[in-house]
User: Fold this.
Amino acid sequence: MENVLDLKALFHLSYGIYIVGSRRDGVYNGQIANAVMQITADPICVATCLHKNNLTTEFVRDSGVFSVSVLGQDVPMTFIGQFGFKCGRNLDKFCNVQHREGPTGAPYVMDWTVSALDARVISTLDVHTHIMFVGEVVGAAVIREGSPLTYADYHHVKKGKSHQYSPTSIFNKVKNL
Assistant:
């Protein structure tokens, strides 16, 4: 293998589209994330990686809890945009969105969601521009039948872009090559 960094190779990694939510002082916030994965089975733990500048990152760090809402393939781009391209410092992202609290009190979205997880943070890792949160899952539910939206479908079918703070924001440049 040549010592060349072909960024298009990253397109072959599998991702989903999720809303990671949290709470702080009775206020909810959430954001679109594609960096979520299960990392252990006993106990069940998941990890998510959030940009240091995001309000959701502050909420997770301060409260020690987060939820993951797995979005379905039928989710409209306007809904993704509310959580992915708007700042929770300027608006209540959960306004006019059906949601519930999980066992930790973190909010998960009911609209356009196929399943949801609720986790307590057990570890964090500073990863340059992002913080990786590892959480032990304390609640999980199937919200409705359906297939989850993959990040590939988000880009190829829905023609979506990556937020500048997304771990995959480099895809925007690569897509234009």
